[in-house]
Amino acid sequence: DNSAPSNQLRDLFKGSIDDLKLFDQQLDAGQITNLFNIAEGNCTTCTSNASLTAHWPMDLCSVDGSAGEVVDIVGNSSGATVGAASTINDGKFCQAGRLNGTGGHINVPHTNAMSLTTGSISMWLKVPDLSYRNTPDLGGMGILSRDSLNFDGGGHLTLWLDSSGRVNARHQSTSQSYSMSSNPRVIRENTWHHLVYTFGNQRMRLFIDGRLVASNSNFNGGIAGNTEPLILGASAVRSGDNESTPSQLRDFFKGEFDDVRLYQNELTLADIDDLYQAATYVCANCTGDRPIAH
Length: 294
Prior knowledge:
The protein is mainly beta and 294 residues long. It has helices spanning 29-37, 269-276, and strands at residues 51-56, 80-82, 85-88, 96-100, 105-108, 119-126, 141-146, 157-161, 167-172, 177-181, 193-199, 204-208, 211-216, 230-232, 254-264, 282-283, 292-293. The longest helix has 9 residues, at 29-37.
């Protein structure tokens, strides 16, 4: 009873099954006809070979700088907050990380999951004030940075946001920098935006809210030669090798991050749209009384 181990099953089926539905009532003839005649719906392409190597959902009720508190739920790339960082209970999906722009950031030490020749970065972000500046260097707010002062082994990468709402990217080989920028106003104040950066065979590509907003076809490298920590919320372009200490960081970010992901291989357009259109989910309510669905 209440089990069906494979060695007890009989009359096994050979063939294909699709679109299985279970209804809570008996269907009439018209409803069955409608199901039979239904048009093919939109679906996700199965040609994608992107695989999730790190995922920081930011579903935390509090942070205190403890090692590993910013949990990677698929691997061993957990990190920690540094300085003035906190969480909110009404992020894009459940909780989110908040940085106040005065030096707070998230530091994820280098792991093998970051040694990618081709890959993708996905995240949600929201900023209250595009004109905010603290310790400026690149002229904006650092979103993500795996970088240092020199070229080193190549693969250095920094994404940042400027006061016009433009997102910028700089990706390095062992001897040259490659840059690209979106048009202004792709990021608006007090609005959650989905950002995807892909690199590798299809070169540098930047997507905001499911739409391609910038590309650079001159560089097809990855981040495999880069052993710098991953910094969220600041620029590490002036830091020393393999450290990114707070005093070396610049362009501190003021705003929120949510659902940060790192993929091996490049996301397809369908993958990106799925992430942008993703539904919310039930999560713990950090006010302590009950679970809450956003």
